[in-house]
From TrEMBL:
Identification of the protein by name: tRNA(His) guanylyltransferase
Family of this protein: Belongs to the tRNA(His) guanylyltransferase family.
The record's free-text note on cofactor binding: Binds 2 magnesium ions per subunit.
Any one biological process term the GO annotation gives: tRNA modification
Superkingdom per UniProt: Eukaryota
Length: 349
């Protein structure tokens, strides 16, 4: 039988590969499946066939009692899983995440899997998910952070979920019951690859994600203040916030609940950047003169000698992979960390 495998081998011809354009930045964005999406009764009525399954099943965040609007345990777990991905895949220069999404940026010189899109996306998302599941007990064995309590709250779908509200230590037992992962609600992620031809496009991509973090967080902070502190239903809060600007939301938070949005934690407002840490350049004139749109690149990997390649790999392996909650939209961020764009490891801290 073994000699006759050639009879079947023609099926290989059905396989199709997408090779990502050479010399472009590869971004893999992963996104949690069914973590937060909230379906209001109004939307359900508009599109019952598509939305009924979502409406009936508790979201991951509700099932495990994530603190609203932000659960620091869930965010720290996302960051730890992202750090693991950077430890395993040396071609990733930087990653950025907030909420249930993460973007991983491979250097344009990367030749991993001959730049086959499906291989790269599936490796990133499975490495991330494996770490997320493995590390889950470390972050969720503890009850919701101090100063929060769990309360019964209708998710608008007829069922009641346990969520944590700031300020009142109560019934943390329920939190422990929910700590173990259930086969019916295993966290999973999807992934896609996008290639960006210029440094400028890549910076704009990451700026877009960080701006999105800010917009979403301001919305969620206000939404959950109206629900949890103001006693509105989810639908009422959604209606109330329709058409409001950022300044209106800031005003609602301050005048109604005495919350100064600027004092919210940086991790909530800015999201998280995961990168290898080297000695940063001082933000002096010399650094500012670096034109980050044309920052020189490493030659393509196949043009590098084997020794040089190995040296770069070892330097990346040795560097600390750190998590920061800082502004990545301003040029300063890139000018102080030239290694992110050049791919040349910097000097150790
Ligand atoms: Mg998402």
């Amino acid at each position: 039988m073994a000699d006759e495998t050639w009879i079947f081998e023609y099926v290989r011809q059905f396989e199709r590969e997408e090779y990502l354009l050479p010399n472009t930045w590869i971004v893999v964005r992963i996104d949690g499946r069914g973590f937060h999406k909230y379906v209001s009764f109004t939307n359900l009525c508009k599109n019952p066939i598509r939305l009924a399954p979502l409406w009936l099943q508790a979201r991951i965040s509700n099932h495990y009692g994530f603190v609203k609007p932000n659960d620091i345990r869930a965010l720290d777990l996302m960051n730890a899983a992202a750090q693991h991905v950077l430890h395993v895949l040396h071609d990733i220069m930087i990653s950025y995440g907030h909420s249930d999404e993460y973007s991983f940026v491979f250097h344009k010189s990367c030749t991993l899997f001959e730049r086959r899109s499906a291989k790269i996306a599936s490796t990133v998302v499975s490495t991330f998910t494996a770490a997320y599941i493995h590390l889950w007990p470390r972050y969720f064995a503890e009850p919701a952070p101090t100063g929060t309590f769990l309360a019964r709250h209708s998710n608008g779908g007829g069922s009641t979920n346990v969520i944590a509200i700031e300020g009142n230590p109560q019934s943390q037992e329920t939190s422990r019951e929910k700590a173990d992962l259930a086969i019916s609600h295993l966290p999973t992620f999807d992934a896609r690859c996008i290639s960006y031809p210029s440094n400028h496009n890549l910076k704009d991509y990451l700026s877009w994600r960080q701006a999105d973090c800010h917009i979403n967080n301001l919305y969620n902070t206000t939404f959950w203040a109206l629900v949890l502190k103001g006693g509105m239903s989810n639908t009422e809060a959604e209606e109330f916030l329709k058409g409001t600007l950022s300044s209106d939301k800031n005003e609602i938070l301050w005048s109604r609940y005495g919350i100064n949005y600027n004092n919210e934690k940086e991790i909530f407002k800015k999201g998280s950047v995961v990168l290898r840490e080297y000695k940063m350049l001082e933000p002096t004139e010399a650094a500012r003169r670096i034109d980050i749109d044309v920052a020189s690149d490493l030659p393509k990997e196949d043009e590098l000698s084997k020794t040089k390649r190995e040296k770069i790999r070892k330097a990346r392996q040795k560097a600390d992979v750190v998590v920061r909650h800082i502004d990545i939209i301003k040029d300063d961020f890139w000018q102080q960390r030239p290694w992110l764009l050049t791919g040349q490891p910097g000097s150790s801290v």
